[in-house]
Amino acid sequence: MKVNTKSSMNTKIRHLKHELETWLRTLDYIQQENVSLKNCLADIIINDIEPEMLEEVEYFQNQFLNKDTIISLLRYDIAEQNRLAEAGEAMNGNFTMLVKKHDKLREDMEKTEKEFNKLKFQFNNYLSDNL
Asked: Greater confidence, 9 or 13?
């Protein structure tokens, strides 16, 4: 998207910052859901799981821990992008770079949401089939 005036650039930056705030709320939700799934997994482990379930339970545990790492990395990237957006209001020289990084971050957020939802349904289906 081309930005021709300082006013439209400031509007674009405000939109980017709004999107960053939305992503932080999304990450909060994913993190809460991930905690809930880990708690559910812990309940299964406490209740003496069957030996044949161990491999799948371990798989899900690793996936949930991996999501924690991804959430942390995305939070860092969002904070960095927000810092760049703040600086972008003061100096317009790197606006194109800001937009490119934002687009990449948007792709990362979309991928994370999709993967987390897939994992959540996969885990719930596993529980339904095996408990």
From this structure: 13
